[in-house]
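@channel sequence for tomorrow's demo:
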Amino acid sequence: MNDISLLIVIVEDDAGMRRALQRLLRVSGFDTQVYESAEAYAGANDLRVPHCLVLDVHLPGASGPQFYEQLVQPKPPVVFITSHDNPVTRHAVASAGGTELLIKPFVASELLDTISRAVLRGSSP
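structure tokens (generated this afternoon):
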């Protein structure tokens, strides 16, 4: 087993959801950083590139898909999360390059499996 924890960045404006996601990922062996908005993450001084982003679709300021589109290449894999499952949301995620979208509420195993798929896809040549 690898001794290096994978870094997962969570960008979620709901404080309770942010804490719950962080707690789940930490007990599952991931290193985490959490931010309440895309702007807060963009302004962070940490230079580590995450292995995966968990990005809420609906954020104050720039939306998750808007923010992801603006990231410089190579972009980390992303798992978008939302409570708004509709064609507009799905189109915004797909247009931003997102392949993983989870609808809240989701179960812990679903999130962990989706993050694992995204990380594996991101590490492929």
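heads up for whoever presents: The radius of gyration is 13 Å.
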